[in-house]
Amino acid sequence: MLRAEENEYVTRVGPGTPMGDLMRQYWMPAMLASELPRPDCPPVRVLLLGEKLIAFRDTQGRVGLLDNFCPHRGASLFFGRSDECGLRCVYHGWKFDVEGRCVDMPSEPPDSNFKNKVRATAYPCRERGGVVWAYMGPRETPPPLPDLEANQLSEWQVSAYQRECNWLQAMEGDIDTAHIGFLHFGSERAEDQIEGTFRYYALKDRAPRYAVLDTDYGSMYGAYRPAGPGQQYWRIAQFLFPFYTMTPTGLLGRQIIGRAWVPMDDTHSILFTMTPRPTAEFQAMRERGGAIRPILQPNDTGWYGRFRLIANESNDYQMDRERQEHDEEYSGIAGIHLQDQAITESMGTIYDRTREHLGSSDAMVIRVRRRLIAAARALAETGATPAGVDHPEVYRQRSGGVILDEDADWVEATQHLREAYIEHPELDPAIVGGFV
User: Do 267 and 319 share a domain, yes or no?
Assistant: First the structure.
């Protein structure tokens, strides 16, 4: 368990907090590019690391991310007009470009140079793979974007989902593999699966053993259980600073995925998922395995109005007690994403981790918390640059499942499969046996 001060340290992300300062060292997914569908479209409210910001796309198609409050009298720039390569405050007509410069001040005398002395807080933005990335850190020249394979594909799919709880609480579900045999597949039996597949082995032994190690980008774990004679089934997953995960679903060497658990504030987060665009056959396989795409409410213009699920706490996540009672669905909640959402939100917005009783299956959770706390403290106390900031290449990773000989060194044996941008047509995804 974490001590009370450690729990506070690792969860709070607002301006001036150690964890917030750590995250500001990195580029972060801020929104989907599709939220700003055309030049001079209406601006969007964006809550990021506890800061209220206004995003807009200017006449040339560039994305700007400005402080919510106009530096003149504090009116919200959300009500501004996006025109002629700037966002114009409707209170007095002051206009700001994507870099925060005041480029027009029509309420002042024509010969005034006052506009040259005024700037709005603005954060650099870049677009890549359907994501608008923002840099909120202290450097005049931002570091490189992380080299995430899933965000650099020619055929990509990106989604976003809001979670009404702390970012770490939400993210830890991705680095906890033991729960799949209960929350997601508790009503399934090994004998009903195809023998020799990952799904079969995962259900045959629901208490895997763990190996965890630190990496130059974060931490990695391997959860292993018996497979065929003299073999073991390994589920290998990644945590990458400051909030990325690569889950162990799918086949190691073939799976390409990136998941970013971006804090909106201390009590809300957005999950950005980046994957290759699936074929119809692959999507059907995922749905058979429980990967039901959750249904979203239409976005509204509120600070918490983006990417909210229709199934939520107010309707008990559309839980079906009859299906649960008849063991048709272990949790009574349909779909892997919604099951995770319900459980992590059920802990409250920020769970009191001093009440936990962690076991051996929590080895990766413990390791990631320690790494985050150590990195934030090192930055605060010595100014040490955290992992990955200046080395985008360390993000070239993959995750997934693999069958290894029981005497194999799992790290050495999977090194070639964990490297991004390498094709492995020799690997047959049928061995997965479903979404596990």
Answer: yes
